[in-house]
Amino acid sequence: MNRPEPRPVPASPVDRCGAVLEAAAAVILGKEHELRLALTCLLARGHLLIEDLPGVGKTTLAHLLARLLGLDYARIQFTSDLLPADVIGVAVYDRASESFRFHPGPVFSQLVLADEINRATPKAQSALLEAMEERQVTVEGETRALPEPFFVIATQNPLHQIGTFPLPESQLDRFLMRIELGYPAAHQEKRLLAGEDRRALVARQAPVLVPAELAALQELVVAVHAAPAVIDYVHDLLAFTRASGRFAYGLSPRAGLGLVRAAKAWALLGGRDYVLPEDVQAVLPACCAHRLVGSGEGAVLDACRVDAEILAHVPVP
Amino acid sequence: MATERAHWPEPVPDRLQRLWLTLLVIAGALPLLPRLDWRIGAFASALFALRLLALRWHGVQPGRWLLVLLTLVGIANCLHVYGSLSGRQGGAALFLTMLALKLLELHARRDLQIAAILLGFLVVVQFLFDQSLGLALYLALVVGAMLTLLADINATTGGGRLRPALTTTTRLALQALPLTLVLFLLFPRLSAPLWDLGLDAEQARTGFSDTMEPGAVSELVVNGELAFRVRFDATPPPPDQRYWRGLVLWQTDGRRWTVGEPPRTGPASLALAAAADRLDYEVVLEPTDRRWLFALDLPVAAEGVVLAPDHLLRASRAVESALRYRVRSVLDARTPAPSAALRDYALRLPAGTITPRMRALVASWRGEGADDQTVVRRALAYFNREAFHYTLLPPPLGPNPVDTFLFETRRGFCEHYASSFATLMRLAGIPSRVVLGYLGSEPNAIGGYHMVWQSDAHAWVEVLLPGRGWVRVDPTAAVDPSRIDNQSASRLLGAGNPVRFELAQDAWLARLARGARQFADSIDAAWQQWVLDFSAEDQLGLLQRLGLGGLGEYGLAVLMVVTFSLTLGAVLLGLVRAPREPDPLVARHARFCRRLARIGLAPHPGEGPQDHGRRVIAARPDLAAPVSRFLALYLPARFGPAPDPRTVARLDALLRGFRPRRRR
C-alpha cells in the first residue's frame, strides 16, 4: 500500500504525457482540464499564473508536476519584505578560498513556485520576472544560466488586495497562461475529503518523465505543424481583439506567438502533429484572458468571458 | 477640430495628380469649346494655361482675392455672352468657367476629388449638345481616366502607381455594367425629348428653309452631314429616279420662291391614275427641327406620319430627334388634274421682273402653236444647247435674278435652273411649281441601307401637262448630266468648294474612302437605332416579349426595381464572397456542413470542425461512421503538414452518399 504501484510505461514520451495527466488527476481531483493546461504551458516553455483562493491546491499542483516530471522544485513565499537576493541568490565571502562564492537562490530550480507573487514589492517581483523572461540571472557581473527546463508557477490571491502589489498588465504578459482552479465538484470534493493526505500522496509519486524527455517533448512542440489556415485564424482572433472595440487594447504579437505555441503543445498532448482550430480555442481563454481588459472596465477579463467575447465572433476555418 | 487636423493632416495632392487632373479637365472640355461662344472658351483656356503655369512656377498661383476677382469676371463673361446663367448654353458656359476656376485651388485631396467629380458633370452636360457615338466613346475614355485618377487619389497606401488604380477602375466599371444595362433597358423613358424640359434649342440645324433664293441651297451642298437613311424592302430604284420630295414652292416674287398659299379645294388628290410598281421603304430622318419629311417621288401611303396635300409627308411635330417612318412610293404615278383655282395659282407670274427678252424666248418656243410638251422639250434643249454652266460658286445676280441668269451670267446650280425654268414655264402658260428635296442616295454595303447626305440637296420643277398631271422636270439635269451621274467625287472630298481635283471613281483611294465612310455610317446607324432611338415603345415591346406586357407602364417600374435589386444583390454577394480563396477542401467541408444544416446540425458560430463533428455524433450516433470518416480525411488534409492529394476525390466519394435525413 505504501509502495507506488509500478505503472506500465508507455513507449513514446508523447504517450507518457497521458500517463502524467492520469497520475496527476488521481491526486488533484476533478481538475483534468486545468492540469492539461498546466502541462501544455510547461511543454510550450511558458510560465503559469494560477489565480485563486488559498487552499484550492495550487501548491499541490506545482509540487505534483515537479514530481511527475522529475524536476527539482523550489518554493518562494513572496512577502512584502522579500528582497531580490532572496530569489536570485547571494555571493558570500568564503574564507577557505578567499573569494566570494555564489549561493544560488531558489530561482535556480527547474520548477519554481512563486507563492502569492503579488505580496512582494515590485522590485522583488521584477527580479523573478526578469529571470523568467531571460532564463538567466546576472549576479555580481556574472551571467548564470538557469536550469533547463525552467518553469515558474506563480500564484496570486485575488482577494485581500490591500497592501499588495498586483502585477501590472505588462508583467502579466510574461505569463503564457493564467488559470483558475476553483472549487472541485461536489462528488470529487467528497472523495478528496475521504481520501489520503495529498502531501503524502504527492511524495509517493514516481517520476513519469525524465528531464531529457521533457526537453525532447518541448522540441516536438516546436515541430508541430500549424497550417496557414490556422495561422490566419490566430491572426483573425488577434485582429478582432484589436478592432472590435470590446477591449481597451488588443492582444500583442507576443500573445499571438504564445497562443500558437500553446496550441501546438495542446495538439501534441492530443496526439496530433498538426494544430486544429479547436486547439487554439482550447488554450485561448487561458492564454489571453489575463492580457485583455474589457473596454470601460478596469480589470482583466474572466477566462470564461473570452469564449463569448471572441470565439463566437471570429469565423473558424 | 483644429487639433485633429493637426494630428491627421490631409494628404497634400502631389504635383503629378494635379497635372493629370488638369489635363483630363482640358481633354473633357475640348469637345464643348466649339459649341460655346468663343469668349467662354477663351476665358476657360486662359485659366487652364494659368493652372499649368502655376504647376511649374508656384509664384504664378493666384491668391485668394485674385481668385474671387476671376470668379466675378467669369460670371460676368457668361452673363454678357448669353444673358443668363441658366439654359443649355448659359449653364454649360458657367459650369465650364467654374470648373476651370476650381482647378486653381487644388490645395487638398478633397479639392481634387471635387474637381474630378465636377468633370463627370461636365461630361454629362455635353450630351445635351451632341449624342454621337464618337463623342460618347471619347468621353467614356475621359471618364475612365478620371476614375483611374480618382482611385489613385483615394489610394490609402502609396498611390502613384497605375496598375492598382486601373484594377480598381476596371472592377468598378464591371460592377456598374449590369446596373447600367438595367437602367438603360428599364428606366422609364420620357416620350418627349429633353429639349422640352425647358432647355433652349436656339441652335437651328442647317437644313431646308421653306423658301428658295438662289444662294441658299449652296450652303446645303457644302454641308457634309447626313440627311437621312433609307432601307428599301426590295430592289432600290435606279439612281436617276431617286428624287426625294420634301417641299413644294408655289409662289415667287421674281427673286425668291415660297410655299405661298395655294387654294385647297376638296380632299388631297390621292387618287392615282396609274400605279406602276410599288416601292416600300423605311426612312430614318436626322433631326431637322422642321415638320417636313422626305419621300421618293411619289409617296402614296405612309406609316406614322401624315400624308399632306401635294403628296408631301409631314410629321405631327418638329423633328427634334431622329424620326423613323415607313413609306410606300410609286415611281411613275400620274396625278389627276387639279382644280382650276390651283391651276391659276400655279400660273401666277411675279410682277415687274418679266423682261421682253424672256417673253421673246418663250414666244420662240411656243411658235407654230406647239403643245405644252413640246415647249418643255424645247426649253430643256435651250438649257442644254446654250452655254449654261453648273457651278456651286455662281456670280452674284442683280435685282432681277431670273433675267440676269438666263441671258448674262448663265452660271448657277439647281436653284437657279429650277427658278428660271419654272418662271419661263408660267410665262408660256404652263402651270409649274418648284420642288425642294434631295437627289440620289449612296448605298451602304455594310449596313445594307442607303445614305442621303445634305450635299444631295436639290431643287427641281414640276409642270402640269394635260392628261399627265404633274410631271417632274429637272432642268439642271439638262445642263449638266454629271450632276446626277457623277454623284460622289466632289462630296467625297469633303464637299470642297470649289472642287480642287477629281478622283476617278475606281481609284483605290476613292474606294477606300468610300468604304471607310460607309463603315463609319453603319456604326452610327446602329448607335442611332439601338441606343439613341431606344424609346418608351421599345421598352413596352421588350416587356411584351418578356410576357409582362399586361403590366403596362407599372411593369417597367416593377421590373426595374426587381432587376436592379437582384443585380445589386448579386454584385454585393460577389463582393462579400470575393476574398474567399477557392480551396477545394474548404468547398467540400462547406458542402458537408450544408448537408448537416438540413437536419438542423449546422456548425455554431465559432465552433471548430472537430467540435462540430463530435456534437453531430452525440446528437445522431447513426451518423458517427460517415462523419468521423469525413473528419479523419478532412482535418489532416486541411490542417496537416503533408496533405494527401487524393483527399478531395475521397471526400467527393464520401459526400455523394452522405445525405442525412431528419429522424421521423
UniProtKB/TrEMBL annotation, chain A:
A Gene Ontology molecular-function term?
A: ATP binding
| Stored CDD domains | AAA
> Does the keyword field hold Metal-binding?
no
Q: Which SMART domains match?
A: AAA
InterPro entries, A to Z: AAA+_ATPase, ATPase_AAA-3, CbbQ/NirQ/NorQ/GpvN, ChlI/MoxR_AAA_lid, P-loop_NTPase
Q: Does the keyword Ion transport apply?
A: no
Q: Which domain of life is it from?
A: Bacteria
Q: Which UniProt keywords apply?
A: ATP-binding, Nucleotide-binding
What range(s) does the AAA+ ATPase domain occupy? 44-185
Family statement drawn from the similarity comment of this UniProt entry:
Belongs to the MoxR family.
PANTHER family (UniProt xref) = METHANOL DEHYDROGENASE REGULATOR (PTHR42759:SF5), MOXR FAMILY PROTEIN (PTHR42759)
Its protein name is: MoxR-like ATPase
Query: To which species is this protein native?
Result: Marichromatium gracile
From TrEMBL, chain B:
Q: Which Pfam families does the record associate with it?
A: DUF4129, TgpA_N, Transglut_core
Q: Where in the numbering of this chain does the Transglutaminase-like domain appear?
A: 406-477
Name the domain of life. Bacteria
Q: Quote the InterPro entries the UniProt record gives.
A: Bact_TGase-like, Papain-like_cys_pep_sf, TgpA-like_C, TgpA_N, Transglutaminase-like
Asked whether the keyword Iron is assigned, the reply is: no
Which spans are transmembrane here?
A: 40-59, 65-85, 112-129, 135-153, 554-576
Query: Per the UniProt entry, what is one GO biological process?
Result: proteolysis
Q: GO molecular function, one example?
A: peptidase activity
Under SUPFAM superfamilies, the record lists:
Cysteine proteinases (SSF54001)
Keywords from the UniProt entry: Hydrolase, Membrane, Protease, Transmembrane, Transmembrane helix
What name does UniProt use for this protein? Transglutaminase-like putative cysteine protease
Task: Look up and give the organism this protein is from.
Answer: Marichromatium gracile (Chromatium gracile)
